[in-house]
Protein 1
Amino acid sequence: EDKVVQSPLSLVVHEGDTVTLNCSYEVTNFRSLLWYKQEKKAPTFLFMLTSSGIEKKSGRLSSILDKKELFSILNITATQTGDSAVYLCAVLGGNYGQNFVFGPGTRLSVLP
Amino acid sequence: GAVVSQHPSWVICKSGTSVKIECRSLDFQATTMFWYRQFPKQSLMLMATSNEGSKATYEQGVEKDKFLINHASLTLSTLTVTSAHPEDSSFYICSARATRFEAFFGQGTRLTVV
């Protein structure tokens, strides 16, 4: 069965800290891995990764994929209270590469 | 990123009535759209995959007669919750597949059945 595992499930840090969120997967017919940020409403897109070893960066956020070891990390440097959210990892794959399999999410709380 | 519009963002309805939720891709064509349900503090639960011009594929345990999905065009999919009951109250989210590798979410619809 296809699955995506995220760790930690919950994390509390202080402003200015750097955090690393982990996502590992076992998904057939892998197409891509996506990171989303979910605050109070629907998830917003952060990154899409398809190739190993190529870092994607957007401001204080960065992410990288290792297709050999089947995992990805999402880094957030100099965290701010506005980074508090649930971070979801999803893998596109499965039957005909059509299914998005979501992890349970990591709930990040950044304290002032 | 591409824009997906979901409407309404919230709705309250009486038990026994039906509610329709729309999901539109505004600046791209989406051959595939996904409908999710999310309970408080839980991850997204895929309900069904909707392909334009064909019947939706429902996940195990999801009643297709209760959650009617219509993907009428390349930019519009609808989810109708029929004969809604309080236990159907939830946050429903659609996403549209923009390319071979990525999908974008609508804003979500919070349904409350009273």
Note: DSSP finds no helices and eleven strands in chain A.
Protein 2
Amino acid sequence: DTGVSQNPRHKITKRGQNVTFRCDPISEHNRLYWYRQTLGQGPEFLTYFQNEAQLEKSRLLSDRFSAERPKGSFSTLEIQRTEQGDSAMYLCASSLSAATDTQYFGPGTRLTVL
Amino acid sequence: GENVEQHPSTLSVQEGDSAVIKCTYSDSASNYFPWYKQELGKGPQLIIDIRSNVGEKKDQRIAVTLNKTAKHFSLHITETQPEDSAVYFCAASRGNTPLVFGKGTRLSVIA
């Protein structure tokens, strides 16, 4: 499968724990986006990368959230000291380059904070 | 910033009928408008997109229209089938920038 992959698909954690999600974009895609989707809502932008450079962070991305893309390939999203309000689907998308606008989404990681 | 409004929030149609979903956007600089279909437990799947230099685009049973002056765009699905049942999202961006999504339309096609 050459699509965007995300792991894990589901994560259940207790409030206060740290969690980390991984996203593998489509091969050779330079842009990588993270979105968050809560029940009954559309995806909301969190942050995005051009290769290894983090270009923009949404105000939704509190200081408990950090994202990296160290080698310009896969990316990780870490949430520290999770809160119940962090429960959501975390979606990753990739696009070929800065010159292209079409974004392809992965299956998402569903986080449940107890 | 950009704001995208989508309606209706739910839509039920008989199999074989047409479905229309409408979105409006606020940022006149937006020039890229994709539509995604999301099935339960899955990520959004791109079904069609349109850029601001065209007014209409069609792909088999799916078409999208764009009115830049009024800042609205619509998704049209003809000859609906049960497998079209899903949540549909419109989005807007200035191209190669983060997408701003509508809140979604839950489409139910009744056999």
Note: Chain A touches chain B through 28 residues (CB under 8 Å).
Protein 3
Amino acid sequence: DVKVTQSSRYLVKRTGEKVFLECVQDMDHENMFWYRQDPGLGLRLIYFSYDVKMKEKGDIPEGYSVSREKKERFSLILESASTNQTSMYLCASSSRTAKRYNEQFFGPGTRLTVL
Amino acid sequence: DAKTTQPPSMDCAEGRAANLPCNHSTISGNEYVYWYRQIHSQGPQYIIHGLKNNETNEMASLIITEDRKSSTLILPHATLRDTAVYYCIVRGLGNTNAGKSTFGDGTTLTVKP
């Protein structure tokens, strides 16, 4: 059974803290993605990576950075957390084979609250 | 990527077919239509996708109009477990398009007993 796991389901941090969200997939997928989900705004892409050490900005990269040192792991970093980064964060992965390229598998999400 | 429009909510009786519409009038020739759903407190789950022909899998059927400006996701025999938010997105292939479609608010489908 394919799996995308995220390090925490719930996280509470203080303003200004550095926050690491980790995502691991066991499907040997080349592509990995970080989204945030907010009521009324849908799912918005923060960053994605199509290979180890490669990263591309999504629609809302400001305030975030990412790291992909190993194929199976994609980390989202909030260098200095702010209250407007309180959100549900979702990680996804997909294969690069043409037919299944955009079939993304999502993790369960991390609900981050920044106080 | 093309934008999509979906009704905010729909109800369906258990055991009946659920037909969820999506408009994507600005879709371009190389863009696919994808459907995902998100059950409460879980990540989105891929359902089906298509380019221009109708598609069917174990979960659902996808009907795309001939002009490709709209599509309908059909759940043939809806169950209570199909209650979820259903997202229709349009996306091209290739690295530059990977993941770049924003999921909108989708359609909240409520299946009632």
Note: The first strand of chain A starts at residue 4 and ends at 6.
